[in-house]
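For the sake of transparency, this paper describes our internal protein records without simplification. The record that follows is passed on verbatim for readers who wish to inspect the format:
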Amino acid sequence: MSHPPGCSCGDEDAHVLLEGTLNFLYQHVDRDKVVALNAEEGKEGKVVIRPWDQRQQEDEWLESDADEQLILHIPFTGNVKLRSILVKTGPAGYTPDKMLVFANQLLDFDEATSQDVTQNFDVAATKEVVEYAVRPAKFPSVRSLTLFFPSNHGEDTTRVSFVGFKGEYSALTRDPIITVYEAQANPADHAKIPGLDSTAHSRIG
């Protein structure tokens, strides 16, 4: 399988079994704006963005449609300093073998195979929820993530049943821009130029 520029599979595939809810970002995902590309008809991307206590459920999942490739675009409601991505996939051959992660980019399939990837992972062959630690320096201020699953372990389609995130959240701040317009010039506010009075005129040429 060919990989996008910047892909370095093999040295960024560290993963650990999930531990703890600290800094879980479910409430900061803009779920209604989650987009899934090549998803099975009638399925919305937000179905896999679940609260912590629903992470092990297997009654709903997102499945690719035409082939094994699947893209999820997940926007946040503010800025996130990302620490890890949590994923539950499978079973067996439906499990993606790679996950390519792009920060702050809304990509289609052609773009996802040609753009530099922010970080990539080998996906663990398990039905458990797995936590993939990102390199924080690559995700210091994230407004959205695109997850690209390019292939799987042998089935015609790919399944993902849970996606979550951990990190530090900060709300967007938009201070109002205040402009003060001077309705009428006040001579006392303006320094006089030496040698000129109110009747003097400058002449060019």
